[in-house]
Write a sequence for this structure.
């Protein structure tokens, strides 16, 4: 069995999939272009939403479709029961989404919409999970909590191919056509095409789509901002603790990526050329992942000249990215506040695109009372999605807590935590609605420029401050590698 430790290098947070919220009943049937779906109406902490799980947005990438661009999903007759979490894409075993099976048949998404429909189409927020492009799942009660939709948005959470199944480059794959090294990137684009074509049926506005992601999910967001193939499919972006892809050091050239692919084929004893490709497609996904471990394969967005036409840093430095309104930031205990966060903010704002920067400093009551504990990688997700307290007890949250110098026990929470969760989800929803995160009567969040270096500290109270690099507070030395890097 392949086993994967929770990622210490990427620090990516994927909250474990688990049972649905306390109460559930059948939801109304929604007719998508491929067929009807019936989900569940769920309630938690006084808010209610309709959730539709496991809707296919592309055909299963199995057999001859392994390492091919995503193909259209097949239609179905009647009503599909969308009440079970979909499979995780191939990855090592870990506590990250451990309640769901692993399969190459994994290109599914979940939709969470307010229980009460209005005549007005709502802004859409499409979330991509973290996990360093190697692990994780969209199937989480945190990501699919009813609180954020209750702020007047439709939330979509999507899986995409990971690791070598999503980011393998090889000369034989390049000879087949577009996609070598970027199948996961193309999956994300396909999920956005599904949103464009179907989200109106759920009450969402296909002309007002915000993409957002944390850690490795931030990498996925940046990949779409860098790919001209996706620019027409979204209108705003949020990158949470995952801005490193804009740095020059993160460039993965086609040549280097293909070298890694050839090494993986060698570890599989697959031979060379087209024969190697046939052998790799005949291998099980478990064998592919084992070979990837032997070959020391690392997943990264690849500069292939088509999906990603140039190094991402170069694309942003020359203003060729999608110049959509952007929120970018990280949490107090993350060193990226001194490096990648201001770098991305500087590059994007210099291109004339509206940019806002944040530091998330809030700690739940139990950790607030611990000396040296600081907001760590991924903690903001429980607040942004309004999943207090359920998100705080996630095994992954508790694992990552040591990165902030916090104990690994479920922390107590109080009214302050519930208030910050309401405020954070309200701010994110306002940004999705208008392209400006300022909320009348709550906060006036100024735009960032290199000259003003202004940011919002999301804590108690909300506060506008200057010099984002000074927001970083180093976790205690004992926190070690668990602090992670985006």
């Amino acid at each position: 069995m392949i086993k994967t430790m929770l990622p210490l290098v990427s620090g990516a947070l994927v909250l474990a999939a688990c049972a649905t919220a306390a109460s559930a009943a059948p939801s109304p049937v929604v007719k998508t272009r491929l067929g009807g779906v019936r989900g569940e109406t769920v309630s938690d902490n006084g808010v209610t939403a309709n959730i539709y799980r496991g809707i296919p947005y592309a055909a299963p990438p199995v057999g001859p479709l392994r390492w091919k661009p995503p193909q259209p999903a097949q239609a179905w007759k009647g009503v599909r029961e969308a009440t079970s979490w979909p499979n995780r894409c191939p990855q090592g075993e870990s506590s990250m989404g451990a309640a769901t099976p692993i399969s190459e048949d994994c290109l599914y998404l979940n939709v969470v919409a307010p229980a009460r429909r209005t005549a007005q189409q709502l802004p859409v927020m499409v979330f991509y999970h973290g996990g360093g492009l190697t692990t994780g799942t969209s199937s989480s009660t945190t990501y699919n909590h009813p609180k954020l939709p209750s702020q007047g948005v439709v939330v979509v959470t999507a899986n995409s191919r990971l690791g070598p199944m999503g980011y393998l480059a090889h000369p034989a794959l390049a000879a087949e056509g577009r996609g070598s090294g970027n199948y996961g990137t193309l999956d994300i684009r396909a999920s956005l095409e599904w949103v464009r074509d179907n989200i109106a049926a759920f009450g969402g506005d296909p002309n007002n789509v915000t993409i957002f992601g944390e850690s490795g999910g931030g990498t996925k967001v940046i990949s779409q901002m860098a790919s001209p193939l996706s620019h027409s499919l979204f209108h705003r972006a949020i990158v949470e603790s995952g801005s490193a892809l804009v740095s020059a050091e993160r460039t993965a050239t086609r040549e280097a990526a293909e070298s890694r692919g050839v090494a993986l084929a060698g570890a599989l004893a697959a031979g060379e050329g087209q024969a190697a490709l046939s052998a790799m497609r005949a291998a099980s996904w478990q064998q592919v992942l084992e070979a990837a471990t032997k070959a020391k394969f690392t997943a990264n967005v690849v500069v292939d000249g088509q999906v990603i036409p140039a190094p991402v840093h170069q694309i942003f430095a020359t203003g060729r990215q999608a110049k959509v309104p952007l929120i970018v930031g990280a949490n107090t205990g993350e060193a990226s506040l001194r490096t990648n966060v201001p770098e991305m903010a500087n590059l994007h704002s210099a291109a004339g695109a509206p940019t806002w920067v944040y530091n998330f400093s809030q700690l739940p009551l139990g950790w607030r009372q611990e000396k040296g504990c600081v907001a760590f990688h991924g903690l903001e997700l429980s607040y942004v999605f309004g999943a207090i307290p359920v998100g705080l007890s996630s095994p992954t949250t508790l694992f990552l807590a040591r990165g902030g110098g916090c104990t690994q026990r479920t922390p107590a929470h109080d009214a302050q935590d519930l208030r910050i969760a309401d405020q954070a989800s309200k701010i994110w929803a306002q940004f999705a609605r208008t392209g400006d995160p300022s909320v009348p009567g709550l906060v006036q969040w100024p735009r960032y420029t290199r000259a003003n270096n202004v940011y919002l500290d999301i804590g108690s109270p909300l506060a506008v401050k200057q010099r984002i690099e000074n927001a970083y507070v180093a976790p205690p030395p004992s926190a070690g590698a668990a602090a992670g890097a985006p």
Q: What stands out?
A: The longest strand covers residues 204-214. The chain has one domain: 23-250+299-483. DSSP finds 14 helices and 13 strands in the chain.
